[in-house]
Design goal:
An eight-stranded parallel β-barrel has the order 9-10-11-12-13-14-15-16, surrounded by five helices. A seven-stranded mixed β-sheet has the order 1-5-4-3-2-6-7. By secondary structure, it is of the alpha/beta class. It contains 24 helices and 16 strands. The protein binds phosphoenolpyruvate and magnesium ion (MG). Magnesium ion binds next to helix 19.
Length: 563
């Protein structure tokens, strides 16, 4: 079985299949009906939040009539005849919520259909709708089972929070039927050093639960029940990796410099404080991207200022003087946070995301800004705004940051200086980089999003992966433009997207004058080793040649020849 390599490596372990599908509505006896009723209430609150947001959206938009339909569904969530009777089944029969929802929805549909009332007859479809919404909410609340022994996870796709949770168990490898090279699931797998292949169509149907599997994420192959020869190959690979680790040992300490002595920084991309010891072990010089979404995704309510301050200050202290760049909440796209009630969107990657959402929701944004400003009292912290598309967004965010600072001062809270930067990850920001550079203290180029928006090619869609490539001349030209604008305005520029750690491209980043690369933790020594072999003048010449090419193939050939 074949797939596309997303994170290189090899693993040999039993398969753990994640079979998704319809929620399991069969009746199950539950001991603790109180806990089951709590699940029901949480699911109902989630649905109410989603529906209210949708209703508000429809009222404001072009379809106020449709809001009434959803109003009826919202009322059902408080209706004794609907929710009340579902709760009654859970309590009275000692059964699971899914069964009670499905069982009572069917009965209720039959009752409504039998009435001599056309209005209520038509509400049958609403019952089905709310039933499905509740079942989805109930399954969303279920945590993925965390295996207690080493496994290779096999799934259609995994959410970022599933990977975090599984990664802290015993996850040796990931095989996905779907997935995209720069999806957040893959980014996390890379940061945790977990080999992963994507686009392995049909793999779920062909593997058995618990069957030994060799995941060869170098060749992009999955071998069920590997024979002796394949197992020997795996052992050899392990030994080679061990040797490579030893040869990179000296790049786990000291500073980073090119062969001609130009200093650069290699930072880490992280999502939690659990990763800080790994950064220090691998010789990371700081954190170039703290993705804060995970903190919001693992919970039922937004993390308050204190919770966030605790996280940021733990990281600052763990980094012991090394800088921390905190990216403010980048919700939306493939990172959904149910309690924030962003209505379902047709194109979430082009939707109500990141800075767009945060600027409209100061009640969510301000506590995060406050926690960042306070953490800066303990060590070097910078604040980075995601998904900026227009100068006005930066201006509004900076005003809000100034307001929060004043409020903290009034409260007598200690704060520190916080340089403000932006992710350059929309073509609009890249094109206007000369103007934006005058507004901020630093740029960090988010090549994952910049590539998908530049080529209009979904980063999670394996079919358009050849366009979504960091070797495309259009992307390289755009990155070069951004770097030039940053240099001209005298601000720092880094790359925190995955392109920053692609070995063949590193000489280009050196030649473009990038100041820092922020990469996944396991790649830090490799990236530093590569930089140390680069001569700036030669890299600048390489950039000059590469920018003249018209095809991805020519770029690949040139950088590979150069390597
Ligand atoms: C990027 O877009 O390159 C980036 C680093 O941010 P994320 O992958 O979290 O969208
Ligand atoms: Mg991004």
């Amino acid at each position: 079985m074949k797939g596309t390599v997303a994170v290189g490596g090899m693993a040999l372990s039993p398969a753990c299949l994640f079979l998704e599908g319809q929620a399991d509505i069969s009746a199950r006896h539950v001991e603790d009906t109180g806990e089951e009723l709590r699940r029901l209430r949480t699911a109902s609150a989630l649905c109410a939040g989603e529906l209210s947001a949708l209703i508000e959206e429809l009222r404001r938009g072009t379809a106020p009539d449709q809001a009434e339909i959803l109003d009826f569904q919202l009322l059902l969530l408080e209706d004794d005849n609907y929710m009340g009777r579902i709760a009654g089944i859970v309590q009275g029969e000692g059964v699971n919520c899914e069964y009670a929802v499905a069982c009572h929805s069917r009965l209720y549909r039959e009752e409504l259909a039998a009435l001599d009332n056309p209005y209520l007859n038509e509400r049958v479809a609403d019952i089905s709708d709310i039933e499905q919404r509740l079942l989805r909410a109930l399954s969303r609340r279920e945590k993925a089972a965390i295996p207690s022994t080493p496994v290779i996870a096999v799934a259609q796709d995994l959410t970022p929070s599933q990977v975090v949770e599984l990664g802290h168990g015993k996850l040796e490898g990931i095989i996905l039927e779907k997935g995209g090279l720069s999806s957040h699931c893959v980014i996390l797998a890379r940061s945790m050093g977990i080999p992963c292949i994507i686009g392995a169509a049909g793999v779920l149907a062909r593997l058995e639960q618990g069957q030994p599997v060799l995941l060869d994420a170098e060749a992009g192959e999955v071998l069920p029940s590997p024979d002796e020869e394949a197992t020997r190959r795996y052992r050899q690979y392990q030994e080679e990796k061990q040797r490579e680790r030893q040869s990179l040992e000296r790049f786990r300490q000291g500073t980073t410099a090119t062969a001609d002595g130009r200093t650069m920084k290699v930072y880490a991309n992280i999502t939690s404080q659990l990763e800080v010891p790994g950064i220090l072990e691998q010789g990371g010089e700081g954190v170039g991207l703290l993705r804060t979404e995970m903190l919001y995704m693992e919970r039922d309510t937004p993390p308050d200022e204190e919770t966030q301050f605790a996280l940021y200050s733990a990281i600052v202290q763990g980094l012991a003087g090394r800088p921390l760049i905190v990216r403010t909440l980048d919700v939306g796209g493939d990172k959904s946070i149910p309690y924030l009630s962003i209505p379902p969107e047709e194109n979430p990657f082009l939707g109500y995301r990141a800075i767009r959402y945060c600027l409209d929701h100061p009640e969510i944004f301000k506590p995060q800004i406050a926690a960042i400003l306070r953490a800066a009292a303990l060590g070097p912290v910078r604040l980075m705004l995601p998904m900026v598309a227009a100068a006005g967004e930066v201006e509004r965010a900076k005003d809000l940051i100034a307001t929060v600072r004043e409020e903290l001062e009034d409260r007598g809270a200690a704060t520190g200086p916080v340089p403000v930067g932006i992710m350059v990850e929309t073509p609009a920001a890249a094109v206007t980089a000369d103007q934006l550079a005058g507004l901020v203290d630093f740029f960090s180029i988010g090549t994952n999003d910049l590539t998908q928006y530049l080529f209009a090619a979904d980063r999670n869609n394996a079919r358009v992966a050849s366009l979504n490539s960091y070797f495309q001349p259009a992307l390289l030209r755009m990155v070069e433009h951004v770097c030039r604008c940053a240099r001209e305005k005298g601000i720092e520029v880094g790359i925190c997207g995955q392109a920053g750690e692609v070995e063949q491209l590193i000489p280009l980043w050196v030649g473009m004058g990038v100041d820092e690369l922020s990469v996944s933790i396991p790649s830090i020594p490799r990236v530093r080793c590569r930089i140390s072999g680069c001569d700036t003048a030669a890299c600048e010449e390489l950039v000059g040649r590469v920018l003249e090419y018209t095809s991805e193939a020519e770029v690949r050939k040139e950088v590979e020849r150069w390597s």
